[in-house]
Amino acid sequence: MKWLSILFTLFAFSALAADISGNWKATAEGPNGALERTFTFKQEGAKLTGETVSSFTGKSTINDGKVEGDAVTFTIDAKIGDQDVKLNYKGKIAGSEIKLTSQMAGGGDFPPIEWTAKKQ
């Protein structure tokens, strides 16, 4: 009976996670002006995959993606100038909008960027 209760709790928690599969368009104010990025998310349970494209860093694959309740986290490998970087994303899902913060792994010379993504 105890195991049944634990399984039910796990399934209920999984059902509460938002499904963000689909296309999203994000905007932000960067150090040099407005930025745009598109995300194509594919979600299976808590696992998140997909890709993202921006004019600044080109096309990148979404890695280590997770959706837990209204929280989302993932990383992308990108190229800024001649430098290969890992960008960490974390955010909160609110219906058809996600507020994301991206930051270079290790901090680097770039401040965090605040994104607002809207489902397309």
Q: What percent of the residues sit in helical stretches (DSSP H or I)?
A: 10-25%
**Multimeric status of the protein:** single chain
Number of discrete helical segments: 1
Q: Kindly state the mean pLDDT as a whole number?
A: 87
Distance between the termini: 44 Å
How many independent structural domains? 1
Under CATH, the topology can be stated as: Lipocalin
| Number of β-strand runs | 8
Low-confidence stretches: 6-10
Please state the CA-atom Rg, rounded to the nearest Å. 16 Å
The main β sheet shows up as: 8 strands, antiparallel, barrel
CATH structural class: Mainly Beta
Summarize the helix and strand pattern as letters. Answer: HEEEEEEEE
CATH architecture: Beta Barrel
Structural class: mainly beta
